Structures are given as structure tokens and as C-alpha cells.
């Protein structure tokens, strides 16, 4: 009896330890706990905005950007625990560039990056700090870009890249539907992925000549991918035709068999 009781006790203790361990692993960081309760720009606003962001989706949290220790209430913001606080305006590119290395490189080489100390935009000017969303060419718009200069050149850039963007989306959709009907699209997907990544690096240069020159190259790459897709879609069309013909033949065969049986039965 005593042994059973002890066994049960041990069992419950194990369950308790396990659930509390998973609970603390799932809990939010102390940064979010404490700042979520502070008002305004110091707490509620950054916390709520961050929750809507692409970073929240990918679990890039307060401490991944600001440093510090998300497990220790008291020492959370101590520099001993790696807290780096808030970057100055011109330090933002390096702050974000710890993770977005390629983008920072392109930005630094651009006119924007070179004049960041004299009124050029930093990453936050275009992407915001806490409400960062998946980037699209919609970020290039009259309201955002006209804060500092006319919209002429931005409009030209947008026009230049939007046809290629649209083609990219169309090809992505085609590949997805080919995949759904059972084609092996691995190579096509890899091809398009690499074209897209390289193409999307272009914008940060804000160099209209460079963008014009390189977009032509990307269009040529995409035309190749499109040709392969067209071929596959044609094969698919033929398959459907042959399949349709087979079904027709089967139905016809069935009808004939039925007719023959009827004539035998009638005799
Ligand atoms: C116990 C509450 C509490 C915790 C935990 C906490 N903070 Fe703070 N934080 C504050 C308060 C209060 C301020 C404003 C006063 C100050 O700067 O010390 C602040 C300020 C900040 C600032 C602005 C600093 C500046 O220079 O303007 C940042 C960024 C920040 N916290 C990030 C974090 C991060 C990241 C974590 C987790 C690793 C964290 N905080 C944990 C209460 C907290
Ligand atoms: C993607 C990186 C990133 C993440 C994640 C992030 N921050 Fe920030 N945060 C910044 C930047 C950059 C600034 C500097 C402000 C600016 O330039 O607009 C900043 C500024 C702040 C400030 C100073 C007040 C202000 O708005 O300028 C506080 C407080 C703060 N962040 C708290 C937080 C808290 C709390 C979290 C988590 C819920 C968080 N941050 C997550 C990048 C980030
Ligand atoms: C002048 C506005 C502007 C500035 C400044 C800017 N960006 Fe962007 N960013 C954009 C636009 C517009 C796009 C979308 C380009 C596209 O889809 O072709 C983009 C795309 C991105 C992407 C997605 C790229 C991809 O491969 O999918 C990341 C990440 C990014 N920016 C981070 C940053 C960082 C980090 C900085 C600072 C070093 C920065 N941006 C500065 C406007 C800007
Ligand atoms: C600790 C690493 C880290 C830091 C610091 C960081 N990011 Fe990110 N960021 C990520 C990850 C991870 C993703 C999601 C995966 C991806 O798209 O690359 C992401 C995604 C993005 C995207 C969407 C990319 C797309 O595909 O459209 C943008 C825009 C972006 N970040 C901008 C910023 C800006 C601006 C800052 C500075 C305020 C910043 N990031 C700081 C890690 C980081
Ligand atoms: C915070 C201010 C600021 C914002 C916001 C801004 N720019 Fe700029 N931009 C500058 C400055 C400063 C220059 C360099 C001096 C000039 O040409 O006015 C510049 C120059 C340019 C140039 C000219 C490059 C050349 O070769 O002449 C282009 C193109 C450009 N920006 C595109 C954009 C686009 C697109 C956006 C919106 C997504 C944008 N900018 C948003 C400040 C800004």
C-alpha cells in the first residue's frame, strides 16, 4: 500500500515538473511581460506593433534586436547581459544589418546609405522599427518617398521593377499548380528562388541605371524559366487530352458491352 502511494506521488511529481518546465519554455520573455504593462512609446506601442510584425512570426523578439537577458527580470537590461539599448539614427543600418547582411551591403553602397548622416533614410524610415512587414514594392509610394524629395525617380524605379515582380508572381503560381498535379518542380523552384533573391537585392541601390541594366538580365532568366513551364503545361494539356480520350473510350466500351448483354438476354 505504502509503495503504491509512493509510486503515485513520484508519478504526480514527474507530471508537475514536466508541465511546469514546458509552461516556462512557452512563456513570453520578461521583456514582453514588463514592457507590455508600461504605457505609450515605452511599452504598449512597441509591444503591440511587434506582435503584428514579420519578426514576431519568425520569433525574432525584443532581445534579438536590443540585446539583454529575456529570462531575468532584474538583470534583463544590464549591459553585462548584452543589452545594447536603442541605436542612434545613423547606427540603425548596422543594428538591422547584423542579420540582414546583404541588404546592409547594398544600402551602404547606395546614395541613401552614403548620406544617412545628412538626411538620408535609414532602414526604419521605410520599414518602421517594430511593425516591420514582409517587404513589397508597395513600400515605394508617393507618401513615403516624397517626405524627402520628389517622387519622379522613385516612380521610374517602381515602374522598372513592377513588370518583373508581376512575372515572378505569375511563374510562382504556375509552378505551384504544376506541383499540385504531381510534376517534380524542385529544379524550377530552386531556379526561381535564386532569381527572386538576387532580383530583390536591386532596389536598395536606388540607382535607376543599374536597376534598368540588371532588370533586363533577370527578365531573360525568367523567360527561360517560363519556357520550361510552358513545355510542362503543354505536356499536362496532352495528358489531359489523352486521359479524356481514354475515359470516352471506356464509356463507349461499357455501352457496347451493355448492348451486347441486352441482346443476349432478350434472346
Ligand atoms: C521589470 C521591467 C522591465 C523589464 C523586465 C525590461 N524592461 Fe526595458 N525598460 C523598462 C523601463 C521602466 C524602461 C525605461 C527606463 C529606462 O530606460 O531604464 C525601459 C527601457 C527600455 C528600452 C529603451 C531604452 C532607451 O535607452 O530608451 C529598451 C529598448 C528596452 N527597455 C528593452 C528591453 C528588453 C530588450 C528587455 C528584455 C531583455 C527589457 N527591456 C526588459 C522596464 C523593463
Ligand atoms: C527588428 C528589431 C527590433 C525588435 C524586434 C524590437 N525593437 Fe524596439 N526598437 C528598434 C529600433 C531600431 C528602435 C529605435 C527607434 C527608431 O529608430 O525608430 C527601437 C526602439 C525601442 C524603444 C524606445 C522607444 C522608441 O519607440 O523609440 C523601446 C522602449 C523599444 N524599442 C522596446 C522594444 C520592445 C519591448 C520590443 C519587444 C516587444 C522591441 N523593442 C522589439 C528595433 C527593434
Ligand atoms: C528608401 C526605402 C528603404 C530603405 C532605406 C531600406 N529599405 Fe528595405 N526594402 C525597401 C523596399 C521598397 C523593398 C522591396 C523591394 C522589392 O520587393 O523588390 C525592401 C526590401 C527589404 C527586404 C526584403 C528583401 C528580400 O530579399 O526579400 C529586407 C530584409 C529589407 N528591405 C531590409 C532593410 C534593411 C535592413 C535596411 C537598412 C540597412 C533597409 N531595408 C533599408 C525599402 C527600403
Ligand atoms: C536578430 C536578427 C534580426 C534583426 C536584428 C533584424 N531582423 Fe529583420 N528579419 C529577421 C528574420 C529571421 C526575418 C524573417 C526571415 C526573412 O525573411 O529573412 C526577418 C524579416 C525581415 C523583413 C521581411 C523580409 C521579406 O521577406 O520581405 C524585413 C523588411 C526586415 N526583417 C527588416 C528589418 C529591419 C528594418 C531591422 C532593424 C530595425 C531588422 N529587420 C532587424 C531577422 C532580423
Ligand atoms: C528620410 C529621407 C528620404 C526618404 C524617406 C527617401 N529618400 Fe531617397 N533620397 C534621400 C536623399 C537625402 C537623397 C540624396 C539627395 C537627393 O537626391 O535628394 C535621396 C536620393 C534618392 C534617389 C536618387 C538617386 C540618384 O541616383 O540620384 C532615389 C532614386 C531615391 N532617393 C529613391 C527613394 C525611394 C524609392 C524612396 C521611398 C521608398 C525614398 N527615396 C525615400 C532621402 C530620402
SSE order and pairing:
Blueprint: H1 2-26, H2 30-35, H3 44-51, H4 54-57, H5 62-66, H6 92-97, H7 101-109, H8 111-114, H9 123-127, H10 142-145, H11 152-180, H12 186-199, H13 208-266
Helix pairs in contact: 11-12, 11-13, 12-13
The structure holds heme C (HEC) (5 copies).
Could you explain how this protein is built, in words?
Residues 1-25 form the signal peptide. InterPro entries: Multihaem_cyt_sf (IPR036280), Multiheme_Cytochr_ET (IPR051829), NapC/NirT_cytc_sf (IPR038266). GO terms for molecular function: metal ion binding. Keywords: Electron transport, Heme, Iron, Membrane, Metal-binding, Signal, Transmembrane, Transmembrane helix, Transport. The chain crosses the membrane at residues 241-260. With 267 residues, this protein is mainly α. It folds into three domains: 1-84, no CATH class; 87-130, no CATH class; 150-267, no CATH class. It is built from 13 helices and no strands. The protein has helices at residues 2-26, 30-35, 44-51, 54-57, 62-66, 92-97, 101-109, 111-114, 123-127, 142-145, 152-180, 186-199, 208-266. Helix 11 (152-180) packs antiparallel against helix 12 (186-199), helix 11 (152-180) runs parallel beside helix 13 and helix 12 packs antiparallel against helix 13 (208-266). The termini are far apart. Mean pLDDT is 88; it is low at 1-6 and 9-27. Bound molecules: heme C (5 copies). Residues 93, 96-97, 100, 103-104, 107, 112, 121, 123, 125-127, 135-137, 139-140, 161, 197, 200, 203-204 line the site of one heme C.
